[in-house]
Amino acid sequence: MNVPVKYIDLPAQSRSLRAELLAAVARVLDSGEFILGSHVERFEKRFAALSDCKHALGVANGTDAIVMAFKALGVGPGDEVITAANSFLATAAAIALVGAKTVFVDVREDYNIDPDLIEEAITERTKAILPVHLTGKPADMNPILEIARAHKLHVIEDAAQAVGAKYHGKAVGSFGAVGCFSLHPLKNLNACGDAGVMTTDDDSLREKLKKMRNHGLKNRDESEFWGFNSRLDSLQAALLNVKFDHLDEWTDTRRKTADYYREHLQDLVKCPSDQPHEHSVYHTFVIQAEPRDELQKFLLDAGVETKVHYPIPIHLQPAARELGYRLGDLPVTERLSRTILSLPIYPELSSEQKETVVAVIKSFYKR
Amino acid sequence: MKVAYSYLQEQFSDPEPIFAEMRKLIQRGDFTLGGALTEFEQKFAVHCGASYAIGVGTGTDALFLSLKAMGIGAGDEVITCPCTFVATVGAIVQSGARPVFVDATEQFVIDPDKIEAAITPRTKAIMPVHYTGQPCDMPKITAIAKRNGLRIVEDACQSIGGEVDGKRVGSWGDAAGFSLHPLKNLNVWGDGGVITTNSTELRDRLHLLRNHGMKNRDEVELYGYNCRLDTLQAIIGLWLFPQADAITESRIATANRFDTELGKLKEIRVPPRNANMRHAYHLYMVHAERRDELVEFLVGKGVDAKVHYPIPMHLQEASAYLGHKAGDFPITEAHAVSIFTLPVHQHMTEEQKQYCTDMVKAFYKS
Q1: For residue range A212-267, what is the model confidence (pLDDT) as tens digits?
Q2: Residue A173 Rama label (left phi>0; alpha psi -120 to 50; beta)
Q3: Is ipTM strictly over 0.85?
Q4: Burial A319-341 (b: 16+ CB within 10 A, else e)
Q5: pLDDT confidence of residue A12
Q6: CB atoms within 10 A of CB B164
Q7: pLDDT at site A16
Q8: Which backbone phi and psi does A22 adopt, to 5 degrees?
Q9: Distance (Å, whole) CA A178 – CA A132
């Protein structure tokens, strides 16, 4: 018996947590701490521990996290940054926004940057590598770090989709100079609005970023440098602290759903898989299927919403025009953009809903 | 007696109506760019007499994005006043432009008569700051901008409800930035900002710039920022809006009373007030002899007196690269050692108001 399946269902998550969330809002109101303060500090402590890092700093959103990481490391005009083109566009936007040039490197079948192609993209202007842990799967950090060391490049991790993911048992966000996370409402650990967090082990970088998110102020009256206003709202931090208690359970559920999909679909479509050293958190469960658009329509007609993350790779977006990329430059990225399909994988999916997803895909290929 | 600078506890003593709206939002789940935000933006535009309002992350972002939307950046100069909060300058610098300072008047706002001398071929915009809620001389500034082909971005972060010749701040320039920070006159429960503009072209660009440059889910027209006013915060702004004019009027009444009482003291100098302007009194700021001693005395008596701010922008460490020195902006510098602020918020009682001026008088009598 097929049941409707939305691609995302925020009200489903909120239903079970509504009372707790509203109680958290009331606590913030009573505390009168709306800007930084104890709720943010508590969240930062917990997030640092989760990410195997000494420090975490709450910021306004994931994009700002990347922008400020570049600014703090002095990456700017005239510099080049290497990244992947199949990410959400904010990745490349952050590079462009600090005035640096994006150099795209193709990805592997697992959607993450191909370390074997990085070295040939390095020029004397390259300052940093920005690997993306896309879909919640860790990028192959060991070779990336080795290349970065050999060429004296900064590594900044775009972990926007990968809260809690691990690589050889170590959390993402702890490999590069700075880890940048998004806590947007659609993320695995999600605020009720825009929110982000950055992680680092470096004490002096932490001091710099802490000032940067707060106007460059070293105290109420003195600005050491001209900064941003990009702070995680206390209100959102308090809401995130409620959700933090459920994160492990949610991640487990996502991983179990991934196992279920794999078990039932791997003969029909290409499913993402974990290597033994990887702990993916499945922000998205992206299959490769053909003919993709027909399958997506078939699913939709049967009441199952799916998404494509993303149909137009960043290097082919109008915004990237001046970088001069053409179709054919990143063959794997481009091929994947035509076959990828994201299945619903949020923790609140019922067994009936998961069974429906599987059954509809099966019947599509039986036609 | 205690007279606190913050009034959040009194202001939100009955949060139930807000909680009810939040409960609905949590059920709906439209946390980014949701319905409540659109409604808030419409009300905000009407309140400022502007055609459009765009909710963004912070007041700083409002100024920064306005400059970006006008294409202002590296190689350009933006004229502003060194008597302001650091965010004004931060916004200009983060756009890539160079801040060029022009000294303030006795009213803590940019002196229009000194602007033209600061204009160079690189000047692209003027960012007048309606500091403390005191509107700048917008008719003069508008004329200067027109004459020199410059844009105007009003820094209206402290001045919602302010008026010049009956026309609200935020409706004079090409764009204006407002802050909704918890300590502002119209405040939310975290960071928030709004841009107002009368230009459809700027509105369209700002809509792109605040939301990753996306014209739809999959297509990016230009590289943008992520800089949206949370729907959650818009709910609080909407709840507050019916009170907005009463808040301003209450602050004006308190300020007038302070002016009268403190004006009697030879040690206090009240800045000139304009008959053709509506001052929004985000801050009640006047000059005092022996300022530091006075502030210490007041704080000791429970009055949250403050200094906004003791170090002008051109003398901040962050401005070192601009090469300024003490003496460059004599009026702003003189103010920095004499200004102090008293609480002026709408939740002060008669007794608290009386107490504030009594304590200032007591200090000078002692």
Answers
A1: 999 999 999 999 999 999 999 999 999 999 999 999 999 999 999 999 999 999 99
A2: left
A3: yes
A4: bbeebebeeebbebbbebbebbb
A5: 87
A6: 22
A7: 84
A8: -70, -35
A9: 13
Nearest to A49 by CA among A196, A199, A157: A199
Separation in Å, CA A139 to CA A172, A216, A343, B39: 9, 32, 21, 42
Q: Do B219 and A317 touch (CB under 8 A)?
A: yes
Residues 78 to 97 of A: which have CB under 8 A from any B CB? 89-90, 92-93, 96-97
DSSP letter for each residue of B27-90: HH---BS-HHHHHHHHHHHHHHT-SEEEEES-HHHHHHHHHHHTT--TT-EEEE-SSS-HHHHH
Q: How far apart are CA A334 and CA B272, in angstroms?
A: 66
Handedness of CA A144, A147, A149, A153 (dihedral sign): negative
What is the DSSP pairing of strand A196-200 with strand A170-171?
Answer: unpaired
A60 interfaces chain B, CB cutoff of 8 Å: yes
Q: Cβ–Cβ of A222/B317 closer than 8 Å?
A: yes
Contact A226 B89 (CB under 8 A): yes
First vs last Cα of chain B: how many Å apart? 19
Cα–Cα distances in angstroms (integers) from residue B7 to residues A110, A298, B132, in the given order = 53, 57, 17
β-strand pairing of A80-83 with B98-101: unpaired
Burial grade of B344 (CB within 10 A; 0-12, 13-18, 19 or more): buried
Task: For the sheet with B193-197, list strands across it.
Answer: B52-56, B193-197, B175-179, B151-155, B123-126, B77-80, B98-101
Nearest Cα neighbor of A115 from A66, A75, A150 is A150
* CA-atom Rg of chain A in angstroms: 21
Per DSSP, the residues of A41-55 read: HHHHHHHHHHTT-SE
Tally A–B CB contacts below 8 A.
170
3-state secondary structure of B7: coil
Q: Please determine, for residue B220, whether its predicted confidence score (pLDDT) is greater than 90.
A: no
Check: CB of residue A126 under 8 Å from CB of residue A80. Answer: yes
Query: Using N-to-C axis directions, what is the helix angle for A38-50 and A234-244, rounded to 10°?
Result: 40
Tens-place pLDDT, residues A109-120: 999 999 999 999
**Token digits of residue B294:** 């006075």
Q: Which two tokens stand for residue A83?
A: 């990244």
Rounded CA-CA distance A331/B285 in Å is 63
> Strands B284-288 and B268-269: what pairing?
antiparallel
User: Among candidates B252, B249, B197, B194, which has minimal Cα distance to B38?
Assistant: B194
In total, chain B counts a number of residues equal to 366
